[in-house]
Amino acid sequence: MKTPVLLFVSLLILTLACGQQTKPGERMVKKWETGPELKTPESVLYDAGKGIIYVSNVDGKPSEKDKRGFIATLSVDGKILKADWVTGIDAPKGMGILNNHLFVSNIDEVVEIDISTATIIKRYPVTGSTFLNDIATDPKTGKIYITDSGTGTVYILMNGEVSLWLQGPMFKGANGLFINDSVVYIGSDNGILRAEKQSGEVKLWITKDYIGEVDGLYVTSEDKFIFSDWKGSVFIAGKDSKPEMLLNTSAQNINAADFGIIASRKMILIPTFFDNKVVCYTLDDIK
Known about the structure:
Shape: globular
Oligomer: single chain
Order of helices and strands: HEEEEEEEEEEEEEEEEEEEEEEEE
C-alpha cells in the first residue's frame, strides 16, 4: 500500500508545482541600467549592423515643439556613447532603420537621419497627424509604417511620400508596431491588431480584456507576443492565451515605454520615460 500512496503524493506535489505561476519579475533578469544622462527616454532601437543602441529622448512635453528632443547612443553593455548624438528634434519617439538611415517620429513629422554622419537630412510632414508614435520599417518593400496615437491612424512613408493606410475606431490609440513577413501587428486601445500588408484586411488578434496600452511590441520566432504597457508592465501572450505579466514597475512610478530587443543576446531594453533610464533585462522567451 505504501507505493500507491507515495506515488499519489508525488503526483500531487508535481501538479501543484506545475500549476504555480511565475511571479512578475522572476523570468526577466536585470542585467544593467544606464546612468543619469538620459532625459525622458521613450523608445529604444538596436542597430545590429553597427552594434549600437539608439534611444529617443523627449526631454520635455511629448507633444510640444520645443527642439529639446535628442537621440542618444549606447553600447550593448549600457554605457552611454554619446548623449547628444543627434539634437534639434522636438519630441522624438518611435524609430526605424532603412538603408543606413534612421527614421524618427516627431509629433507631426518624420525625421530622417543619415546614420553615417549623424545629421538630419530631411523632414516629412504628416498632414492631419497630431501625435505620431511608433515606426516600423520594411526592407523588402521600402515602406515605413507610422502610427498616430492622436487620430487612430497608420501612415506609410515610401519614396519620400506619405500616405494614409489605415484609420478608424478600431485603431484608436494606435501605437506599437511590428512587421512579421506579410503582416503588420499594431498595438491599439482595442488590443493587438493583425493587418495584411497587401489587402489591408485587419483582425483583432489579442483582445484588450487583459492588457493596458500597448507601447513596445515584439513577436518571437515562436509567435509569442511580448509587449509593454506604458504605465510600467511587460506581458507575454500567445494567440489564444491570456497575457502573462512578466514585469510590473508601476508601483514605483517607473514606466515601460517602447522597448528594444537584441534577440541574439535575449535582451529587452526598456526605456523608463520619467525615470530617465534604459534598463536591460534578459528573457529566455526572446527568440
